[in-house]
Design goal:
Two copies of one chain form a homodimer. Chain A has about 425 residues and is of the alpha+beta class. Chain A has 13 helices and 21 strands. Chain A is about 30% helix and about 25% strand. In chain A, strands 9, 10, 11, 12, 13, 14, 15, 18 and 20 form a nine-stranded antiparallel sheet that branches.
């Protein structure tokens, strides 16, 4: 991390003939789709990878590959075949140890292989935050058995949170209110994910006022010197554990904003590399607690499709391509609200669009996913307003107006 | 045109399995690329067509077809094979008579086949404007020989403009200052285009103060009733005849803005159909003259990538998909400035990007075109500013900092 692995870029050639920078996008969901769009707008060539065909980013990329990205051999094979200038993880579920090896052989991983490895593991990340970045966090313990779990929960107190070691947008998290719930919560957290992990994080249940994401860009400034730009706080609320609704800006007392800025810079400095990071924090009164960080665009940052001229995806593409940026830019009050599937099946159809778009300042982003399952995100409503409250209301009403219906395709699947 | 051919849309299915609306994009340049992006963000399936491979919109579309779109048989074949819900011309050079036939057989053409036929022919368009829309235009004559050309030029006076019959963004236009220049100007205008046309328009050379584009959207309102939304005036200047620089908003006296609004509505009402139109007008003192109209996104509207949350491309996609819209929305002062090739050759490389992006509020859109020739548009710099003057300066400096270099590809062309 002493030398930035992304070089300052003066020239961009042509895609599809071998002279444009080539991005290998590991994960091709809706966040990846926007990264692909913004990278292509800057003249890059994009190869989208995911474990299933017709993923959102595959539909816009120059070409795509379907493979299990958690398989080190398959991951290595696609890198050696495509020879990307940049390996750009979009999700956590990637063979990160293989990324470390690939980086050591000279391939460029965004933001860097170690950051992708640390941030997908709650224990490594928390130790990094506490020991190296020295930012405040909630009290926590890492336990390796039910016995340890009981001891830790008693020590930390009830309610507390049990979290699986692989951090992934709130998946694998349980609130534990009493000792009788410990066994089940430990079992669920340790069995979550493709590879069971006996390590489980037991964490203090913070009584926070706000959950915020600090989008933080590590990039080149115009003088070709590395710089860090922190955007206005994004606040979010979730009825369950998954991302549901976010807005920007969230106005907080100046000293709280200053502390959030400090935490965002310290955490991202300790991870290094180029691109956008979503630094998640809790605000309780005047106190700020670091929670976790995505070394890539963050779900809650979907709001920047409305609140920023350069969305988090545009910023990420620009920074990882080594192009300079001078920010931050003004924030427009905006909100984003997810559109979720209820049923399961192929070829979901989204209805109620007339009502969803019946108010001013609303846009829909529909992801074109080939299959639905309960709570799968099929789209997002993004709204602007004179205030964030107006934007939140508009986005919520639009998202709630959309109904996902599962039908079977009226024609046999076609290749595209 | 009594019944809008685009139906109000309540539901959108899944792309690539036959349940999403399918767009056949005729023309796959940089405007088409943005249309494709916005249509795909709304869940549509996009097939990009152009006469050469690796065109910008082909790189983001679900799939693409390479064919001469001026060939009626080839155009019909691709329509019958792809069975699009919407045929969306992006350029004028399409077999418009065949579009008329296809529409009569039930295919939907955007905005409608007759509008695409009228607007590509200066004579038909001018007669429509004068006779049906009854909007003011410059004095003009349509001539069919050199003899008629001399007579018309004498009658209209020098200087005057000679324009080829196919209207296409300033191509095939000559300023004539004296009788000695008439023969050459007539020859050039009549031989311009793929099919020579003896008809040439001889037009009064207006001493105008401003050339403006009124982006006008014909769309559904939230009550499923057709509506028209006119955006703030876009002004542009061009050193030659081609699009070079534009900005939005251009503030004009209220009565001029009202007249521009009236002209934009009358012209687009007389053409009918759904989607965005670029209504070009001259402003001379307090007078407004209609010049021409694109029944699709307009070059000068590239500025809306910075000045509007819903760019002209987003508005076009939304309107032609039959989704409601409530506008207009606030305009942010912005400017766009083209990045042109100087030399010829494959795989152009764009340099100077570090300097181009050294100011705040600047974005580059690079088109990834596989080949350069002099004055071919390879990108556009879009800038925001506190004022349009600041935005214009930023965009101009950014565009001028970019240098196009022609190199041969370092690897053999690859398919994508």
């Amino acid at each position: 991390m002493s030398n930035p692995p992304v070089a300052f870029r003066e020239r961009i050639g042509s895609p599809l003939v071998g002279t444009a920078p080539r991005l290998l996008l590991l994960g091709s969901g809706e966040l990846g789709r926007e990264i692909a769009i913004e990278a292509m707008r800057l003249g890059a060539e994009v190869i989208a990878v995911d474990r299933y065909p017709h993923a959102p980013a595959m539909q816009v990329a120059h070409r795509h590959r379907v493979l299990p990205m958690t398989d080190p051999a398959e991951l290595r094979a696609v890198v050696e075949q495509e020879r990307p200038d940049l390996i750009v993880p979009e999700i956590e579920q990637v063979a990160t140890d293989e990324l470390v090896r690939l980086e050591s052989e000279g391939w460029t991983v965004i933001p860097n292989a170690e950051a992708t490895r640390i941030t997908m593991d709650r224990e490594r990340l928390r130790r990094r935050a506490v020991d190296l970045a020295r930012v405040p966090t909630s009290r926590f313990a890492v336990v390796r058995s039910r016995t340890e779990a009981h001891a830790a929960a008693r020590e930390i107190g009830f309610p507390c949170l049990f979290k699986s070691m692989m951090s992934s947008s709130g998946h694998g998290m349980t609130r534990v209110d009493a000792p009788t719930q410990v066994d089940a919560a430990y079992a669920e957290a340790s069995e979550h994910g493709r590879v069971p992990d006996p390590r489980v994080m037991v964490e203090e249940f913070l009584r926070f006022d706000r959950e915020v994401t600090m989008l933080t860009l590590r990039h080149y400034g115009p003088d070709a010197r590395p710089a860090t730009t922190v955007l206005d706080p994004i606040a979010h609320v979730r009825p369950g554990t998954l991302y549901h609704e976010s807005w920007q800006p969230e106005r907080l007392p100046p000293e709280v904003e200053a502390e959030l800025d400090r935490v965002a810079r310290r955490v991202t400095d300790s991870l290094g590399g180029f691109g956008i990071f979503g630094v998640e924090c809790f605000v309780a009164g005047r106190r700020v607690y670091f929670s976790e960080v995505s070394p890539r665009p963050h779900d809650t940052g979907l709001v920047t499709l409305g609140s920023q001229w350069n969305s988090e995806f545009a910023l990420h593409a620009r920074a990882i391509l080594g192009l300079p940026y001078l920010g931050p830019e003004p924030t427009t009050p905006a909100a984003a609200h997810v559109i979720l599937a209820t049923g399961s099946g192929p070829a979901p159809e989204l209805g109620g669009l007339g009502d969803a778009l019946a108010e001013p300042g609303v846009r829909l982003y529909l992801f074109g996913k080939p299959e639905a399952y309960p709570d799968r995100r099929l789209g997002v409503a993004v709204a602007r307003g004179a205030t964030v409250d107006e934007a939140r209301r508009r986005a919520a009403e639009a998202a709630h107006a959309v109904e996902a219906k599962i039908t079977y395709p009226s024609e046999p699947p076609r290749t595209g």
